[in-house]
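The instructor's notes for this session suggest beginning with a concrete chain rather than abstract definitions. Hand out the sequence below and ask the class to guess, before any prediction is shown, which regions might be ordered.
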Amino acid sequence: MKKSVLLSLPVLLALSVTLAIPQTTTHHFPTPPEALDPKPIDKSADTPSRRLDLIQLQRDADDLARTAQTIPTDVASVRKGMLPKDVIDKLKQIEKLSKRLRTELNP
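After discussion, reveal the predicted structure:
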C-alpha cells in the first residue's frame, strides 16, 4: 500500500501542477508605442527635387569673377600704404557669392 501511495503521489502532483497553470494557445505581446510623428513617412518627400536657376548661378559666378579680379590691385594699394575703402566690402561680397554658389551646387 505504501508503494502505491508513493507512486500515485508524483502523478497527483504532476496533475495538480498542470491543472494549476492556465493553458493559453495565443501569445499576447505588448503593443508598441505610437509614433512620435503621426504623419506617414514618405521618403520621396525627404529629398525634394531642387531646381537650379542656372541663369542666376551664371550671373553670380560672373559677378564673383569680376569682383575677385579687382582684389590684386587693392592689395597692391595696401602695400603702398593706402587701404581702399571698399576692399572689405568686396571681400565680404566675394564670400557671400561663393557661399551661395557652393550651397546651390552642393547636393
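Then share the key points. Residues 22 and 28 are 14 Å apart (CA to CA). The chain has a mean pLDDT of 79.
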